[in-house]
Design a protein that fits this description.
This protein is mostly helical. The chain has eleven helices and three strands; from the N terminus they run βααααααααββααα. The protein has one domain: Rhomboid-like (Rhomboid-like fold). Strands 1-2-3 form a three-stranded antiparallel beta sheet. A hairpin with a 2-residue loop joins strand 2 and strand 3.
């Protein structure tokens, strides 16, 4: 399943959404040019490391923001940017440029704090735009519950496009992360099963749905 676009055209140019995608891709391209040692230092400086945040929150607070623009691989950044491209433009259209940016960053911060709350002693860097994007998905399913997403589906050697309810596409994202997060609650204090910050996704989604109306989600019909 590969989402392509949705049924909700925008009336404004989504400059902020495009800018967020561009910044994430630019930083990732910088990452892959770095030798392993320098890359580890880069992650240590700008990713959120729960144990260090627990020890010195006043000195590490900026990583709640910078960690949102780091990714651990092509699939990580590719999937995140695809979801942001599909769903973010409509939310920016409803909220407006600046409120959307503030909403996105706020969701990312609260998502990172959600992951930190359940893994305070972890030394594994938490990074990625997934939490902020989960907030966008929470807003989208609240504002467009009946929307459908044009999706590329592969059947054996053939490919076709069908329209799948956005609630189904987003629901899969949420349920997978909820179940994985619940399964990981009894895991060790390291960053949950291979470094996937499931609770950042869950927290981002929940806070996105809760906060979106306060950022003007229903400002434009």
């Amino acid at each position: 399943m590969f989402p392509l676009n949705d049924d909700n055209p925008t009336s404004i140019t989504p400059w902020i959404n495009w800018g967020l995608i561009g910044m994430n891709i630019f930083i990732f391209l910088y990452e892959i040019t770095q030798p392993e040692q320098q890359l580890n230092q880069f992650f240590h400086m700008y990713a959120l490391i729960p144990q260090e945040f627990s020890t010195n929150p006043s000195g590490e607070w900026l990583t709640l923001i910078t960690s949102q623009f780091l990714h651990g691989g092509w699939l990580h950044v590719g999937a995140n940017m695809l979801y942001l491209w599909i769903f973010g433009n409509n939310i920016e259209d409803r909220m407006g440029h600046i409120p959307y940016l503030l909403f996105y960053i706020t969701c990312g911060i609260l998502a990172a704090l959600s992951q930190w709350f359940v893994s305070m002693n972890s030394i594994v860097p938490s990074l990625g735009a997934s939490g902020a994007i989960a907030g966008v998905l929470g807003a989208y399913i609240l504002r467009f519950p009946q929307a459908k997403v044009l999706t590329l589906v592969f059947i054996v050697f053939f490919a076709t496009t069908i329209r799948i309810p956005a609630m189904y596409v987003i629901g899969i994202f949420f349920i997978q992360n909820l179940l994985s997060g619940l399964a990981s609650i009894n895991a060790s204090t390291t960053m949950m099963q291979g470094g996937v910050a499931y609770w950042a996704h869950i927290g981002g989604f929940a806070f996105g749905a809760i906060l979106a109306p306060f950022f003007g989600l229903y400002r434009r019909d």
